[in-house]
Amino acid sequence: MQSIAIPAATPPRVVAASRIASIDLLRGLIMIIMALDHVRDYFHADAFINDPTDLTKTTPILFFTRWITHFCAPLFMFLSGISAYISGGRKSKKELSVFLLTRGLWLIVLELTVVHWAWYFNFLGRGVDLTVIWALGLSMILLAALIHLPRWGIATISLAMIFGHNLLDGIHVPGNTLQGFGWALLHEQRPFFVDGFMVLVGYPIVPWVGVMGLGYCLGQVFARDFPAEQRRRLLTLLGFATIALFIIIRAINVYGDGQPWSRQPTFMYTVLSFLNTVKYPPSLLYLLMTIGPALLFLAWTEREPGWLGRQVSVIGRVPMFYYLLHLYLIHLLAMFATSFSGHRWGDMLLDYSLWTGRSSAQLEGYGFSLGITYLVWVLVVVLLFPLCKWYDQYKRTHKDQWWLSYL
């Protein structure tokens, strides 16, 4: 009898879980918090005249209203990196690279069109902003290349960006030159003007791509075969270590942030000074301050969420849908609100960047109390939730439609 060769079984590829409850919950929470910052931009009176982190003009509640939103951008990047790794469990390395490249390009297109129009309601404006969605998209494009390196190589590059980029703080390339623009894209927030057209580099790419790369490296702990208890211990250890590192480096007050802390007239304001780190570009201490607590959150929220957690997770499963809708809704509500402060709805048709719009005479005297701002924030989230729930259900029942992964 002729023998039949039986091929050796191909070892199954380890696939990460399709949805991680703690990630959806954290992403939903930061999306909700992000809306508070944007409502403050359009509704709070002080938003048009003062920086809420200026300790000479702010109050503790106003400072923390702004400070809590510092968690949003770093966690956008960090969780996107984790999600990229999880997605890679269902794709080949080439497929994942192509997906990251195309989604990154798509996000940049959204930033220059749909997102820009939402901020200004000015479709023929003479400027563009390169802010968080642009940085998210460009980071994905760069990650599409980085994932072909060994994981230790990705981690080394990412950590070098995060821990070393503040060494570049003293480098500046002045003038509206190509060299200046190139340096701004890398490491310096600056506006550029060419024949009356403004390009605001709001989010220099370094070290954002490092934050996303670090998230990608950490994504392996969310694989299905990674022991849950070991994951919780590791995330807890990393979270406390990151927070401790923030406190130690910040206390030394020599490196890691371009804005040293100082003793203030009261203990509370000294604490505010200690927490008042630089966001543009995000300093080492800014990133340690925000990513550390996020790691603890991921470690401590793995169990099945309660009713409120499930509602927050709905938003976390449709973040881009929520992001685009919330900008348009807030701006529309602000146009309506102008009639309550002696202005016309057309005063909310802005040009250039928001900070340029704030300084214009058309919005002088506009704005509401912080209490009203919080009420509007709650209203925005409540109004958006049914739409997010509908879209989340639509995505769940139409998984065969490829375009849904881009929105």
What does this structure look like?
The protein is mainly α and 407 residues long. It has one domain. It contains 15 helices and 3 strands. Helix 1 packs antiparallel against helix 3, helix 1 crosses helix 15 and helix 13 packs antiparallel against helix 15. The longest helix has 28 residues. The relative contact order is 0.15.
The profile of the biggest β sheet is: 3 strands, mixed
Q: Compute the number of strand runs.
A: 3
C-alpha end-to-end distance:
59 Å
What is the overall silhouette? globular
Count, helices:
15
The count of domains is 1
User: What is the ordering of alpha helices and beta strands?
Assistant: HHHHEHHHEEHHHHHHHH
Helix content: 55-70%
Assembly state of the chains shown: single chain
Strand order of the largest sheet: 1-3-2
Low-confidence stretches: 1-17, 353-359
Strand content: under 5%
Assign the structural class, choosing from mainly alpha, mainly beta, alpha/beta, alpha+beta, or little secondary structure. mainly alpha
- Report the mean per-residue pLDDT as an integer: 90
What key phrases describe this protein's structure?
single chain, 407 residues, mainly alpha, three-stranded mixed sheet, 15 helices, 3 strands, 3% strand
